[in-house]
Sequence to fold (289 residues):
Amino acid sequence: MPDNLIINFTPTGMIPTKEMTPHVPVSVSEIVEDVHKATEIGITMVHLHARDPKTGVPTYKKELYGDIIEGIRKFDTQLVICVSLSGRNFNQLEQRSDALFLEGNLKPDMGSLTLSSLNFNKVASTNSPQMVQDLARVMRERGIVPELEVFDAGMINYAKYLEHKKLIEPPYYFNLLLGNIACAQADLLHTGIMIKDLPDNSFWSLAGIGNTQLQMNSIGIAIGGGVRVGLEDNIWYDASRSKLATNQSLLERVHLIANANGRSVMKPSELRKQMNLEPGDGKYGRCTA
Fold:
């Protein structure tokens, strides 16, 4: 892992609503503005979820992802952009892969790839072996890098299986998400096992679900990894849930912890080089040169 800190910003997610917190960005303009503020604070990449403009419900439609990406690239042409290919609400390949077919200045650099099915508190995320392989295949064909999402150690083994089948190739970027009720728990033992099992040439960030976000972000910073942070994973600023967080407050706290550990935030241009991505400024996705 490089010494500079990868900050993967997750502003919206699938679950938070305006009823839960007024701070979650839902509309295109709100998401773009939160990302703009985040780039001014300092982030390396952004993990986007699009919402239907009328209902606020998560959507797969590439047109809305395109609107968000277009808005972001008006002020930052190098930020690494990942689109969600989540299976919580959609189970058809044509739906889940839709955003991967954006082109030109709207093309995402990365797409999320959860490596197995899992249960959240109230809903399942279904990722059949065929679906995972098909999404990996589409990303390979489209020149888009998978953001490998791991909730348990077995999912890392499945990444190695995809590598064996030549559906993914290094360098890899993993989000290690701990603290979900049915998956790896947010403690040092689970964290260490998952990091130890990662394939060679892997970059990784730690995320904590709910109250464990701060704990896992702190560990990630302290032991030389990256962090995933934002309202997608936790809407509260404190463990007692007395204060709602904003994306800006969560990012500012991560910066304080990083400074205390003597770590600088990795610039998007550095991650692009490390992950063999195009340089930005009109060229996006995996470098083909």
About this structure: The first strand starts at residue 7 and ends at 9. The chain has a mean pLDDT of 96.
